[in-house]
Inverse folding.
């Protein structure tokens, strides 16, 4: 399916009710395609979209990829679109498997619907492929749907990339949405291949604390998946995201595949507020992640290590196992057993099937908290 999407003829830009400088012909100029994956969190996704529409740099288009939510997400999106002025948002949505082309060329916000959950990379790849068909799109911005962007963030990211042509992926200054004085990450994280642990750079620092952006880049192993600003040349050279992980480690995989060909970047003036893990419950805070997050973090860690650092697999597995034992000994036995399913390879079904079965086994209050 991805190959067919990638070779679809380029789409044409269309009308916009309020042309901006450089858009004298009334078309939406799309230097950047913003890709947002939604899974059962339409209100969060729409809040993210609305923050993008307040951007001072207007040369962008948004593609929201609904990842087989199976709820009211798509109808909620289309209802929201009906409330917008003409040209802002598409009133219809494309079904990924059958009609991947623009349904309403020229609209600022567009929708693609997958009939099943493809995982984060699969959903994002639908958006990336859509963006590759858009004429003039030079950059992609992969944003988590639980993010709110500063009005000047897009302009800062574009400027940073233009000044540094070797940069393939650029990170932003990510701030906790629930605590806007505290840093979640300066752009990304440092990863230890022997333990399988990643550490957000600048995590917990005061938002106004002066820091050396160059030092951040030198220490960075990968750009945070919450906000990845990527050049078109990077995507065309390295390829789309690896879909085998389903969740987590896609960004680190991308960096490893690009090694020696592209640099990482960090634009400190680009601010993104992130409600960490508001879709599947991932968290950098000990003990706060969900069972879904636990399972896929372990599963993807082992897959990544086997692919790129097989010599480190024994130590990575042992560290993960000891961490799961700690959960069990501290009274969180169900979380320990969930991690063991990944560590011992006990799950034989497809990842989306496992997610569905897991959520079905939970009570209503727990199932509503199965997030990414």
């Amino acid at each position: 399916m991805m190959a067919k999407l990638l070779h679809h003829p380029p789409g044409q830009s269309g009308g916009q009710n309020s042309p901006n400088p450089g858009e004298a012909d009334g078309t939406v100029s799309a230097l950047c395609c913003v890709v947002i994956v939604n899974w059962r969190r339409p209100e969060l996704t729409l809040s993210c979209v609305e923050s993008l529409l307040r951007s001072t740099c207007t040369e962008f288009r948004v593609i929201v990829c609904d990842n087989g939510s199976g709820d009211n997400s798509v109808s909620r999106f289309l209802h929201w679109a009906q409330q917008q002025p003409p040209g802002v948002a598409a009133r219809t949505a494309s079904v990924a498997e059958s009609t991947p082309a623009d349904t309403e060329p020229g609209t600022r916000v567009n929708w693609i619907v997958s009939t099943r959950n493809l995982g984060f990379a699969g959903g994002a790849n639908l958006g990336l492929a859509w963006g590759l068909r858009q004429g003039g799109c030079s950059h992609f911005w992969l944003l988590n749907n639980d993010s709110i962007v500063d009005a000047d963030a897009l302009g800062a990211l574009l400027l940073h990339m233009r000044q540094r042509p070797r940069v393939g992926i650029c990170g932003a200054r990510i701030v906790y949405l629930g605590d806007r004085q505290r840093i979640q990450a300066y752009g990304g994280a440092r990863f230890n291949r022997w333990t399988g642990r990643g550490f957000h750079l600048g995590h917990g620092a005061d938002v106004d604390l002066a820091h050396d952006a160059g030092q951040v880049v030198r220490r960075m192993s990968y750009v945070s998946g919450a906000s990845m600003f990527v050049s078109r040349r990077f995507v065309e050279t390295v390829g789309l995201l690896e879909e085998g992980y389903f969740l987590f480690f896609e960004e680190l995989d991308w960096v490893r595949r690009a090694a020696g060909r592209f640099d990482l970047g960090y634009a400190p003036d680009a601010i993104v507020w992130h409600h960490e893990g508001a879709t599947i419950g991932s968290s950098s805070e000990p003990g706060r992640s969900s069972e879904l997050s636990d399972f896929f973090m372990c599963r993807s860690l082992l897959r990544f290590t086997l692919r790129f650092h097989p010599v480190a697999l024994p130590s990575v597995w042992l560290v993960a196992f000891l961490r799961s034992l700690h959960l069990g000994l501290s009274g969180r036995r169900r979380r320990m057993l969930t991690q063991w399913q990944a560590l011992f390879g006990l799950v034989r079904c497809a990842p989306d099937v496992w997610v569905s079965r897991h959520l079905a086994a939970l009570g209503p209050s727990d199932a509503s908290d199965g997030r990414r």
